[in-house]
Design a protein that fits this description.
39% of the residues lie in helices and 15% in strands. It is of the alpha/beta class. The protein has 2 domains: 1-44, no CATH class; 50-238, Rossmann fold. The structure holds zinc ion (2 copies).
Length: 241
């Protein structure tokens, strides 16, 4: 028996593998979901047709990807945005768990799937940049879930993780309950780039947990764009009305 096999057997006995979402027992340590969770997540997976720019899925009107009305009216500050899942049911619960339970397997689980999306989009970013939290919020919560996801993605893709050059300088009130326009006003001027040179001419993948109206990622992308970067947004989930 090789050392690796012994180690695996040891792991299986003392740390039996479980589903990273519901902790149900599963067969292997490969971060796979149990059947029930896999089914729920597959049904929330965003498939086409969707907006070529902001990635919003269309409920009707043909099978082709196209630009949505909102992006036609005003081009977003990012090149494109894509999300893995609709922000509903089990996905909503998982995002909540990710936010408040550092050290669970959810970060590695979702981060590796987001990295796979970057590869599927045939992107070759220079930098992975998480949406920053204000330091007061980090103090109260303990960590930034977007950093957690971005760190896993950077590792999986062998791309540099940049976490200190985009800063949140204003601790904005919660976006919950605000509509699109109010959200944009709420986050306007909340972010700065410290050293613009580091972003100049770079392809950046901007990472967040949830794309709600796009106000937060849009504002981040705007300051990154002003610094000379091209920005693709990857979020775990997307809220759709
Ligand atoms: Zn499960
Ligand atoms: Zn759009």
């Amino acid at each position: 028996m090789s050392t690796g096999t012994v180690a695996n057997a040891f792991m299986d006995i003392f740390f039996p593998p479980h589903c990273p979402l519901c902790a149900e027992a599963v067969n292997s340590h490969t971060l796979e979901l149990c059947d029930k969770c896999a089914e729920a997540f597959n049904s929330s997976r965003i498939k086409g047709p969707l907006c070529l720019l902001c990635g919003i899925p269309f409920k009707s009107g043909g099978s082709e990807n196209r630009t949505c009305g909102s992006c036609l009216k005003k081009s977003p500050s990012f090149t494109r945005a894509r999300s893995l899942y609709l922000f509903d049911n089990e996905v909503r619960e998982a995002v909540h768990a990710l936010k408040y339970s550092w050290g669970t397997m959810l970060g590695p689980f979702f981060g590796s799937r987001m990295a796979r999306t970057v590869t599927e989009l045939e992107l070759s970013p220079d930098l992975i940049v998480p949406v920053p939290l204000h330091r007061k919020k980090i103090t109260s919560r303990g960590f930034n879930q977007s950093v957690l996801l971005a760190r896993v993605m950077a590792g999986a893709l062998s791309v540099k993780l940049e976490i200190s050059n985009l800063r949140r300088v204003r601790n904005t009130p919660s976006q919950v309950g605000l509509k699109g326009r109010e959200r944009s006003v709420n986050v306007a001027g909340a972010f700065i780039v410290r050293h613009a040179d580091a972003f100049k001419g770079k392809d950046v993948v901007l990472v967040d947990d949830v794309f709600t109206t796009g106000a937060t990622v849009g504002e981040c992308a705007l300051v990154l764009k002003r610094a000379g970067a091209r920005v693709t947004v990857i979020t775990l989930a997307r809220a759709v009305n």
